[in-house]
Amino acid sequence: MSKYLTKRAEDYSKWYNELVVKADLAETSAVRGCMVIKPYGFAIWEKMQAELDRMFKETGHQNAYFPLFVPKSLFEAEEKNAEGFAKECAVVTHYRLQSDPEKEGKLRVDPNAKLEEELVVRPTSEAIIWNTYKKWIQSYRDLPLLINQWANVVRWEMRTRLFLRTAEFLWQEGHTAHATKEEAVAEAKQMQEVYATFAEQFMAMPVVRGAKSESERFAGADDTYTIEALMQDGKALQAGTSHFLGQNFAKAFDVKFTPKEGKQQYVWATSWGVSTRLIGGLIMTHSDDAGLVLPPKLAPIQVVIVPIYKGEDQLQMISTKVDAYIKALKSKGVSVKFDDRDTLRPGAKFAEYELKGVPVRVAVGARDLEKGTVEVARRDTFEKNTIPQEELVDYVANLLDQIQENLYNRALTYRNEHITEVNSFDEFKQVIEEKGGFVSAHWDGTTATEDKIKELTKATIRCIPNDTKQEDGVCVFSGEKSTQRVLFAKAY
Q1: Helix axes 392-417, 277-286, angle to 10 degrees
Q2: Predicted pLDDT at 262
Q3: Which of 63, 138, 254, 440 could form a disulfide with 421 if both were Cys (CB 3.0 to 4.6 A apart)?
Q4: CA–CA separation, 85 and 70 (whole Å)
């Protein structure tokens, strides 16, 4: 247990906020609701970016970049999308400041510099992108158009929390155009699977693949496919979404193509995205009372080597011996840090790297050199082993794989133990309040029932799972007929 952190069992929210700051991931900024992502936190995001970008390119997508500002008339073109984001929009109305004649040394908005048309700071980029696609798409030869952009977006959230919900955040957003409905649906489902694969294989975070209910869909989508994860406090986290947009944006922006047959048609569309909230998900899936626990595949530092020495001579001996192991580990693609700072004692360094979630710690002292051994500690279980130095490289490489697998299996066990089937509303309320996690329940398919359950319990339909079985039943709230179970949970 870390002396720096509140225990999770005492106050999970406080523990999370303290961990983000004390592990040097991020901090609040001078701008209300915005965060500064610090180098260690950004290094995690860069590793996420690199893997996702590789996966996008393997599925045929290319990166581009579109403007931050969206003319208000374009933003309004697709009504459902505009209405869905209207309350979160930041709007630019003027383009210049000037000296304030009434307050020396201060500036004010120049009243003569009003924009002819107000600009929305993008909360999402469908409008500006589909206005652009109208110029790019004329023929079936231009399709499919598979574009992704890495960007920032602004959603003027009232209640914010570092990584999980901020007024500005980093993300990627894919926007694709297709000749047929079938191609677009296949694309949206493919990207859902890309996200699920990334979450499970790199984040070691098990997810449920499913579709959103109508009221939970992305504004302007015909269908939204989601991956839902479960955090340690029993709340769900929407970890990524992929949207089948039908022809809604094509019609709003008059994006047509001429097929081989010759008669113009509207194109079919998708969009999909994940954001820096994944870092919040990573923290809340694995971390503990001692600090961060990072899966090796996303850890900025996978192995830290701490020398234990007295005097420069011993440090030099240890450094010389360790240098060969560092080179060998790096040749295997393992990121290694050798911490020879003389400003901290070894125990303080151990605590720092536990707090920062470094998967493997190696301690080497003068006695170890004499014995030909090293001590290796794993962050996920705190287990320590003393091994021969010549086995270090292979041992650590294998250990990183074991830690990655253990973190996934541990999270999967927790998730599976917290999917509870219920058949009455009393059971539903009891599980939501006392146990948490996903509640598998029959639902009559109406928005009215969904809204009432949310009002009474704060639980929402997280998804209709892809693998849900058709079974006759009755809705836990209304008693009306139902043919399948859906997953409810309280969520971030």
Answers
A1: 90
A2: 87
A3: 440
A4: 13
Three-class SS state of 475: coil
- Chain centre to alpha carbon of residue 283: 10
Q: What is the 3-state secondary structure (H, E, C) of 105-149?
A: CCEEECCCCEEEEEEEECCCCHHHHHHHHHHHCCEHHHCCEEEEE
Residue 257, number of CB atoms within 10 A of its CB: 20
Tell me the helix, strand and coil percentages in the chain, rounded to 5. 40, 30, 30
Helix axes 12-22, 277-286, angle to 10 degrees: 110
**What's the one-letter identity of residue 23?**
A
The continuous run of DSSP H or E covering 470 comes out as strand 470-474
Q: CA–CA separation, 232 vs 67, rounded Å?
A: 38
pTM beyond cutoff 0.85: yes
pLDDT tens-place string over residues 212-259 = 999 999 999 999 999 999 999 999 999 999 999 999 999 999 999 999
Q: What is the DSSP letter of 87?
A: G
Q: Quick count: other Cβ atoms within 10 Å of Cβ 259?
A: 13
Among 374, 371, 379, 370, smallest CA distance to 392 is for: 374
